[in-house]
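job 3f2a | input accepted
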Amino acid sequence: MKILHLEDSALDHQLVCRALKKANLAFSIARVETLEAFVAMATAESYDVILADYRLPGFTALDAWSALPESGKRPPFILLSGAIGEAAAVSAIHVGISDYLHKDELGRLDRVIQRAVEVHQARAAQEKANQALAASEQRLSEFAGYLQTAIEHERAAIAREIHDDIGGALAAARLDISWVARHSLDAAVLAHVQAATDMLQHALGASQRIMMNLRPSILDQGLFAAIQWLAAGFEKRTGIKTSLRSNNEQLCPSKSVQLTAYRTAQEALTNISKYASCNLVQIELSDAEDVLTLEISDNGIGISAEQLKKSESFGIRGLHERAKTVGGWLDVSTRVGAGTTIILSVPLTQSMHTMHTMHAQHASEEQFQ
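job 3f2a | predicted structure (369 res):
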């Protein structure tokens, strides 16, 4: 064990060495007396532990502690002094000193050193694990954002194919059926023509609805209009009274923020229709204080904590990740029997910076691909 000893008394240093030898501790030790020499030694070499007297000529052990590099690189630091009270020792530990031992108790020094080193190693391992976890979470968040972008691109491509191929074929078939209707007087034929026309109209409506869900072109008319269209369609399908309020019907955030808000409302309304068992939904859209806020509330049965934690509840988790991609966050407030409220908040200025960064990252990734 490599030890640095900050001590101005040669006799006390010899006593420390004797105590460590008596404990059969394998060690090497270097003694320094001045603050300048201490900082030079501590930064030039790596030590397993530092032992320090509290009061030294012109400075204290706390000055020495403060002069060390940032805490992540500091070794265990043990006060070994007879000139410090218990209150001062406790205060020293609060600022990061590892431990304190009175010079009259040198027989315990080896145990104090071992314990300080073990605690230090455990904290270092924990910090490393936390850093690895944070990096992993950051990578997952970035990957989730990349997936959301890829999914939207794929949806847009599918919507174009439906419009160009299926929509075109259905429109052509309707023209042909209309021709048959104009050139036939047979009642049975006309009945079949009318039935086919109705089916074609239904298919065209379905394809348009699917295209709208895949690529919400309604967003070209503004976010308020898009949410209003969602709310109206939801009320018509479910019979659940749905109201929409906004402090600014002309608000126009970036396309990415609009799409995030639209998908959040879409997912929330889908979940409400499936699980809420409610008769009222209220939606509020605001850009107060330069923060886009979308709040969707129902008066249904609520969601239990167990349901929110279920491994298959990817809808809400997906909304959380989608919000992060534009620099925002999602809050879910619910209570069993008292309804659920989902709130999306996106700082509008920050979201622009976040999206510029993501676009740069994606461009860099595409170069490597």
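job 3f2a | The mean pLDDT is 85.
job 3f2a | closed
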